[in-house]
Amino acid sequence: MVDALLLLLIFVSSYLAFACFALAQWRHWHAAVGSERLPRQATRSLRAAGGVLLVLSCIVAVAHEGIDYGALLFCTLVSVAALSVALTLAWYPRALRPLVLLLPHGGRLSGLE
Amino acid sequence: MVTGFRQSMSQLHTWTGVIVGSLLFAIFWMGTLSVFDREIDRWMAPMTRFAYSEKSVSFEALRATYDTAVAERAPSWTVLLPTERQPVIRVVYRGASRGLVSSYFDPTTGAALPETETLAGTRFLYPFHYHLHLKLWDIGEWLVGLAAMAMLVLCVSGVVIHRKIFIDFFTLRPNKQSLRVIFDVHTLAGVLGLPFYIAITLSGLIYSFAHFYPSGYLAVYPDKQAFAAEATGSYSRPKLKQPGSLASLDAMADEARLRWNGKEPWAIVVRHPGDAAAFVSVFPSFDTRIARYAPVVDFDAATGNVLNARDELRPILTAQRFIGGMHQIQFRHWTLRWLYYGLGLLGCTLIATGLLFWLEFRRKKHEQMGLSGVRIVDALAIGSTIGIIIATLGFFVINRLLPLGTRFLGYDRASLEIWVFFLVWLATFGHAWLRPRWAWAEQCRAISIIAVTAVLLNWITTGDHLARSLVQQRLWAVAGMDLMLLAGAAVAFFAAYRLGHVEERRKVKTPALSGSTSHG
What predicted TM-score, i.e. pTM, was given to this entire model? Predict the structure, then answer.
């Protein structure tokens, strides 16, 4: 059970990391949020959040599975996570909109406020 | 006219892809299936669908097969105890009269199971992945090595020619025109799976380094055996050509267990069975770590005295075994197993869409120029991608249709299955040649029909339908196989629908095109 939850954590954090990286690009930001303007500040925060989440995912993988299995698991899982983000953006980009709310002034940026 | 670095890399990528794409697809497809080779074995050999238990009969219970191996003058005799993925005992030796004998035994009673009469996953699909079933002069292995080098060239040149690797990192536009979608899928699968493709290709090459680069060790050692003996520190001694006896295997296993602080022995190999110089090597299971290697204790067969014991390999060989183990995935880790399988399928998608993109792109050009060569390449591409999938499914279906003991034209059941594989494969090339326009969609439809047939046949011939196999743990391998077949059928059905749609549109356009040329 703990194993499954940690695995889920590794996957979800790398998925969110790539979702942040994607939202930091105007094309995907526009598709997900619907706003024409992507402030420079938002790009920077999204990239930073993505980086932190990816490192977190790597640390959890290595800490839980050991350096050999952990590294292998992380390297293969990130491909699947990035692919899942690409598929989300292809069919339902709006699903990523709530992520923006976590940014400073996110509500204003996404027009939800 | 080649201008500039990127342009030349683009040409390199295109032509390398066109030439080795078909071969690469076969290797990637079979490699992907090999990830679940033992599960495929359970599906294709129903007599081996046992519940796994750590307790099994002792090595000594299999002595009768040792005596047969001695009579058959086998160079070695191997026993593998049950594992989670192969819950039966397996005995392997190469007999003088029967060739390679691989037989299975009931893990709790030690009784011989009926002959499986199929090479299934571990002995057909998996070896196909590295020698293509072409054993003459090792042609198959060399072709695979060349294809692997070409794959590395494709990976690097693909990155160079990708103009907007970060901007298009997540780009997939399913609603654009078909050529654009094919290209998006190709680049997306290429970029996102890149670490896996490079790692799996390079590790495959490093694993077989001794085969591809023999000059390295031949510069120092007289032959491969001498090199392997020193590199691995494995024990060996020549035959005495005098009859010898075999002491208790269980006593040797107990001694090994004691030396390993309670770790269970899993495999026993006797070399020179029946000879006075026969010796017994005992190994524990090596599925607990990535590096594919285990300690070993060697015993004198007649007395049971310890001759040699090895715990660790030299560092450089440990590195090689780690890289090899990473490729072969013999370790126990279900999450990684599924990830390898998924990424392997992504690799197949990458290769197939690469070929398809080139073809669609060329077709337009060729139609304008009135050339017919595209038809040959079209048939080759369809046969080598969708065709090999259909052939594999045909292999599964014929396995469920042929009763045990079938012989036809002098071929036994295992050979007949392989004949069907190759004949079906050949037929897909023929079909693609005869119906170039419709073959993609029709063969996709064929995949969905044959895959569902395979699931139904498994139900009819063994009674292990999904409602039963999903609830019984001993049948999970069968359930997994059935579910994958059904998922594949669904994907192929969807693909056939999409491809049929493209054809409809093309059909509307084509008469206008030919009409204009005939008037012009």
Answer: 0.91
